[in-house]
Structure formats: C-alpha cells, structure tokens
Amino acid sequence: MVEYREDPVTGVWVLYAPQRAKRPQGYAPRAAWVEAPPHDPACPFCPGNEHLVPPEVERVPGPSGGWALRSVWNGFPVFRDPGVQEVIVDHARHDLTLATMSREDVRVAMGLYRRRLLAARSREDVAAPLLFRNEGSGSGASQRHPHAQLVGLPTVPGPLETRWRSFRAHHDREGMALLASLREREREARERVLFEDRHVIVFAPRVSRASHEIWVVPQRDEPCFEHSAEATREAAADALSRASQALTAALGPVPCNLVLHTAPKGSEKDPGFVWYLEVVPRILTPGGFELATGVIINETTPEAAATRLRAALGHQH
Ligand SMILES: [Zn+2]
User: Fold this and answer.
1) 130 CA to middle of ligand 1, Å?
2) Which pLDDT score, from 0 to 100, does residue 286 have?
3) Which of 1, 8, 29, 66 has a CA that sits 20 to 30 A from residue 40's CA?
4) Residue 60 Cα, ligand 1 centroid: separation in angstroms?
5) pLDDT at 285
6) Helices 103-121 & 230-251, crossing angle to 10 degrees?
7) How close is the Cα of 43 to the center of ligand 1, in Å?
8) Ligand 1 center to residue 49 CA distance, Å?
C-alpha cells in the first residue's frame, strides 16, 4: 500500500512505503552507536575543559562546587554576527542521552532552556529564538557530549515565515490554533497517541516526516513555551523523557533531533500559535527520490510506530 499525506504545518508531502523496509540491505543500515565513557578528557564540554570553549553565559551549580549544566557562547556560530548563539551543555556527564538522563535531569535542562530562551527573546537584535538539540552521529551533532543549541535569529528566513503564516491562516479560518486542531484529531483517532495526562498529549503525528517521529503538545493552548505554566513545562519534560526512553527501548539508541517550537517574538499572545516539542529520529537518509520530488519517503507509518512505542512504554517503570 502506498499513501501520500501532506504536512499541514510545512506543506511537505510524505509518501508512506512500509514495503520498502523489507529491502535487502547491502550497506550497514546506519553507523553503530558507539558507547562513550562518563568522562572524556579530550571533550571540550566535559568538566575540567572549560578553558577550551568560549565564555560561560549561565550555569546551574552542581554538587561539590562544580556545575551541573551550563550555557556557553557557541565557538562555531552559524551567523558571523555574534548575536545570540549558545551551546547549552545540558549534563556534566559525557555519555548520557535524553533517554538515559533521569527525569529530574530533563526537567532541570528544560528549565535552563527556558531561561536562555527568555534572555534571547528580550534582545532587540533577535527576531526569533530557536532551541534545538542534535544527538548522535547523523543528527548534525559534532560532539557526543549532551548539549542543546540556542540561536537568536537576526531575521526570519522564508520557510519559517511560511510556517507562521500557515498557523495564522488556520486560526483565521477555523477559529482555533492548527496545533489545537491536530491535537483534537489525534485524540479522536487514538491510534497514534502514545499517552496523555492533564497537561500534555504525546503522539506520532499523522504526517511524520521521520520514522518514529514523536510530538509532545500541551493540552492548553499556550503560544509561548517560556511563558507557559510551570506544571505544563514539567509534564512536558517528563513526557520527553518517557518518549525518549520508549524510542530507545523500541529501536536501540538512534541519532535524534529535538526541536522546541515556541511563539515568535511579538506573538507571545497570538492564539494561532501553540508551542510543542518535536522528537525526530534520524533513521532514514533522504536519497535521489527526495531530491527529485521534494517528497519524503517514510518506511514506517505513524500508526505502526505508535503501536511499537506503546508496547515499549508498557515495559517502562
Ligand atoms: Zn564530554
């Protein structure tokens, strides 16, 4: 069976082709996950190597006088103009991932993301604050050590502007935020929902650009992550931790991106926006078909992914 679905947020088309997963593999499917030590003397983000990276912006103190997490200026920024470009080293230990950090660690990390986003949002020279996380080879990460990145965009690029326009247009048309419509649709369909509580719902989106993609969406329509209720943010951190663990339990450790979508600057109260978290495993590499058509082939339907992830969640403690 072949099925096309259009992503209502980006307008990108996804072609589900589960039969492709049965192809014989002449190449190793992906680089093996390399185990790492808890501390690597050669790693610039490990404690003791603070002198190897640019100055610190903020730290969360750790036990015995060190730091637990810290944010530093990015030594290899995307933009030449300095603006806001930070690397948030979100754990002192070298070998952890979102899945192997404790729930409390993920909460504390989200707290630091929030404070750094607020600081970026308050600056005159920032048009939009972005927070993302690259984990594992194949995710875009150049360092194994767990870290997130904060970029304060000086101007808004076209594709991001298009995305925001689609949020506003949906709200004008339907009287509700696009993310709220998607959340209601997933709740009604049920088959792609992993779990939910009073504060957040977690599902494999109907149009998943990546195999086993997961979204964490608040139950209340809050446009801006930084200004949302503390209980919602903590529930989202817990949900992110659980979802990451389920992903690792189902697939083994895989390279992954996390994107925190929050309202653009000046739209903190815009009812067209709802903040959300996007967890994007990087299992498939786009090939010539994607380059030729702009359509993404996904070998796993979100319905199949959700079934598998729910089974993994069933084994969680
Ligand atoms: Zn390290």
Assistant:
1) 23
2) 86
3) 29
4) 17
5) 84
6) 120
7) 4
8) 9
Give residue 71 CA to ligand 1 midpoint distance, Å. Answer: 14
Give how far Cα 294 sits from Cα of 96, 209, 297, Å. Answer: 35, 12, 10
Distance 61 CA to ligand 1 centre (A): 17
Among 121, 136, 115, which Cα is nearest to 70's?
A: 115
**Domains of the chain, CATH where assigned:** 3-18+41-314 (3.30.428.10)
Q: What is the 3-state secondary structure (H, E, C) of 91-132?
A: CCCCCCCCCCCCHHHHHHHHHHHHHHHHHHHCCCCCCEEEEE
Claim: this prediction has a pTM higher than 0.70? yes
Q: What digits encode the pLDDT tens for the residues 27-86?
A: 655 666 778 999 999 999 999 999 999 999 999 999 888 999 999 998 888 777 767 899
The residues whose Cβ lies within 5 A of ligand 1, an ion, are: 40, 43, 45-46, 94, 145
Assigned token pair, 257:
């991106």
Amino acid type, 5: R
Q: Residue type at 309? A: L
What is the 147 CA–ligand 1 centroid distance (Å)? Answer: 10
Q: Which long-range contacts (CB under 8 A, 24 or more apart) does 41-45 make?
A: 43/94, 43/143, 43/144, 43/145, 44/143, 44/145, 45/87, 45/89, 45/94, 45/143, 45/145, 45/147
Give residue 7 CA to ligand 1 midpoint distance, Å. 37
Q: How far is the CA of 138 from the centre of ligand 1 (A)?
A: 18
Q: Which strand ranges, in their side-by-side order, compose the sheet holding 296-298?
A: 3-6, 13-16, 296-298
SS3 at position 249 = helix
Backbone angles phi, psi at 19, to 5 degrees: -65, -20
Distance 53 CA to ligand 1 centre (A): 12
Cα 44 to ligand 1 centroid, rounded to whole Å: 6
- Residues 119-172: pLDDT tens digits? 999 999 999 999 999 998 888 888 999 999 999 998 899 999 999 999 999 999
Report the separation in Å between the CA atom of 64 and the middle of ligand 1, taken as the mean of its atom positions.
19
